[in-house]
Amino acid sequence: MKNTIDYYYAPVSGYAYLGEPRLVEIASKYNADIRYKPVDIIRVFAEAGTVPPPKQPKARLDYRLLDLKRTADYLGLPINPRPRHWPVPVELAARSIYAAIELGIDPHKISFAILSAVYEQEKDVSDEIVMGEIFAELNLDSDQMWSLIRDESTGKALEESTQEAIGLGIFGSPTYMLNGKDMYFGQDRLFLLEHKLSQ
Fold first, then answer.
1. Of 47, 72, 127, 171, which has the fewest beta carbons less than 10 angstroms from its beta carbon?
2. What does pTM read for this prediction?
3. CATH (residue range 4-198)
């Protein structure tokens, strides 16, 4: 049976940005499917009792900035650990990813473009003009994308994934669920996910 990785995350998450290229590499190596499931992370935080990063104590925030920077350096990824437009509402970015999925577009293509826009280019991905620029850069059909983004189907997909995450006890981004039962929280646990897939 083919392995499936459900990828629950906020499309403005710094740790999702750091982890997604390796997630794709691991899934390819072990012929596993990734199901992209961006969520309304504020609701996930609230249900799990998680303190959102912007509201965490200064000591923890200072460490987060250090950790993002040194992890990015280790992985060879450019990053501004304190991007100009963070945090921002995730609905537009999430709906865009679900629209791409519905159109049969590789979701990694748009997902990582959105994450890179936040952490490399310091763009506001809650802004329609910015998202339109991303669609153009990726040569996506803007009319089709906007039609689906505004359709209730993408809102329903976002709601369903958010409820799934809450029901599974997910408390942060990114979280990877292997075959619906084994949870791995954080990009720093991808080595354990890979180990499981190798067995």
1. 127
2. 0.97
3. 3.40.30.10
